Amino acid sequence: MEYSMNRKDNDPFLLGNMKIALNRIVKAINEREKIVIYGYHDFDSVCAISLLMLVLRYVNSDVEYYIPSVYRNDRNLNKEDIENNLLCLGANLIITVGCGVKSKAEIQLCKENNIDIIVTDYHNHIVEDNNCITINTYQTNCNYPFKDFTACSLIYKFIEVIASYYKISCTQKYLDLVMMGIITTEIEIEEENKYFVEEGCKKLKQTNNYGVRALIREHERNYGGIMKFYDEGIIKLLPKMISKNKLDNARIIVELFTTNDSYRAKQISKYLYKEVMMSLE
């Protein structure tokens, strides 16, 4: 993988354990092992899950995702989720999205059940655990120059190495999802995240994602003369689609961003904007 001096992001292989993670996921893809993506209900994580689902489907992997059905403040793997859901799904490999770096006991449980784990987590917490492969900029073996990723921007780095291995040349088309994930976190957008947001805004205006297109059209129908989707719409409205009382919407949004059916995308977008408008009343 070659990186131009004009690019404002860094080589993903500078991330600690990235080569090991690539080898493990390539094995899972090529041998049709069951891969389960595990993430939470915030909009950044939902975009990241969708992003990874799209790429893994593209390379014909056996992949599903799991989002907990109960609200939790922490961002850990959960024992009940593993025992009652992930084992039932027949997972051989779990990839966490924006969570899991502090889940030592749960990772051990997975190991005892012959499930490997790749942890992608942006939180500032250092854990040395030989039972999983950890991609986290704050780990002692990571020399990556930029530290402050979100769930979505970190998973995009992982996707870049998968794309490099399988000779996929179109990963930048997914930057619209990365941009939306970053913006909805309300973090200070700088350095590499700023690059992703700038490029993502360009991709958004020519997106070929049916779900994103449907959201834009539904937004213009409801708020076109008041609030631009590209500006306030993403920041103010999209996070409101998921709340403690509407956690199922996280899964619905993953379905929106991963569908290849334009009619289905249109119907989901109508439902989500109806939810937003009701929450603002």
UniProtKB/TrEMBL annotation:
**Keywords annotated in UniProt:** Methyltransferase, Transferase
- SUPFAM superfamilies tied to this protein: DHH phosphoesterases
- Ranges of residues in domain DDH: 34-182
Q: Does Transferase count among this protein's keywords?
A: yes
Extract one GO molecular function annotation from the record: methyltransferase activity
One GO biological-process annotation of the entry reads:
methylation
PANTHER family membership = SINGLE-STRANDED-DNA-SPECIFIC EXONUCLEASE RECJ (PTHR30255)
Kindly provide the name given to this protein in its UniProt entry: DHH family phosphoesterase
**Record lineage:** Bacteria, Bacillati, Bacillota, Clostridia, Eubacteriales
